[in-house]
Amino acid sequence: MRIFSGMRPTGKLHLGHLFGVLNNWIDLQNKGNDCFFCIADWHALTTEFQDTKSIEPNIREMLIDWLAAGLDPKKSTIFLQSQVKEHSELYLLLGMITPLGRLERNPTYKELKQEITDRDLSNFGFLGYPVLQAADILLYKGEAVPVGQDQLPHLELTREIVRRFNNVYGKTFPEPRALLTQSPKVNGVDGRKMSKSYGNAILLSDSEEQVRAKIREMVTDPKRARRQDPGDPDTCNLYPLHEILSTQKTIGDVRKGCTTAGIGCVDCKGLLLPSLLAPLKQIRERREEIASSPKTLDRVLEEGAERAHKIAAETMKEVRKAVKLHG
């Protein structure tokens, strides 16, 4: 199955990325699917066009985390969006048939316009990013796109664009289907969504000391004011990490101990640490090895772009023929 997915280069990744996206990508890759994973640097420009100095170092940091977590360039095509120029050509052509009103009704566009007030989002690139997203997927004729429930509206717009293109120019693209993924809830140490911008993230590159310190700071059940108060794991910010990482026995012990006040929050954090520190140590060690070889990173992107370009070029030949463009 041809799988396509991508991520904007935001720099070093955190636990939310690992459990919500990367582990799923790695599983799809290891099951023998034909996977294309794109570092979407042009997408980063939709909100960061006024300050681009961080994009290039962020590309490298994110690629290091991808490889350290387990993405394998021998099994997957890993590439940089801007190194495959066909993305921009298909984006232009799809933009010709995409109704402006449909983009303006995009719920994510409306939400981000309200939430992000420290940057100018009145540019066409931000309004039209779903069209670029559609071009990314369709250029490789992706059959399935791994998404969470909240991302379904984005993919539905891609499917609408496919139907419109096929209706106007003849059947050219398949409608990509959503590959719904279960994304475990992983909040930051303060209880809000884990994000580097909030300063509440546990990074994949954090040292053992940093991870321990952040877990110590992590808020738990807000209603458990005293050690002798019984708690509720289902309202605890830490408990989802136990559900992801701990053994069934530990999960059972934690739930029983919390609800009966048999253990305190400090005890609960102590029970989590071994199962969290071990995988992060492996990632951190691989990270250090990969980061020490810049040529390896360059080679991964060069080889990935070469593979991606071959398929993208064939798709664009077919598209130009359908649209009746010369060449």
Spatial extent as radius of gyration: 22 Å
> Shape from CA axes?
elongated
| Major sheet | 3 strands, parallel
- Compute the separation of the termini in Å: 30 Å
Provide a count of the helices. 14
* Multimeric state: single chain
Overview of this structure, please?
By secondary structure, the protein is mainly alpha-helical. The protein is 55% helix and 8% strand. It contains 14 helices and 5 strands. It has helices at residues 15-30, 41-48, 55-69, 86-95, 100-104, 107-115, 124-127, 129-138, 152-169, 208-217, 239-245, 248-259, 265-291, 294-323; strands at 2-7, 34-39, 76-80, 144-147, 177-180. A 3-stranded parallel sheet has the order 1-2-3. The protein has a two-stranded parallel sheet with strand order 4-5. β4 (144-147), α9 and β5 (177-180) form a beta-alpha-beta unit. The longest helix is centred in the last third of the chain and has 30 residues, at 294-323. It is elongated, with a radius of gyration of 22 Å.
Summarize the structure.
By secondary structure, the protein is mainly alpha-helical. The protein is built from 14 helices and five strands.
What key attributes describe this structure?
55% helix; 327 residues; three-stranded parallel beta sheet; two-stranded parallel sheet; mainly alpha; 5 strands; 14 helices
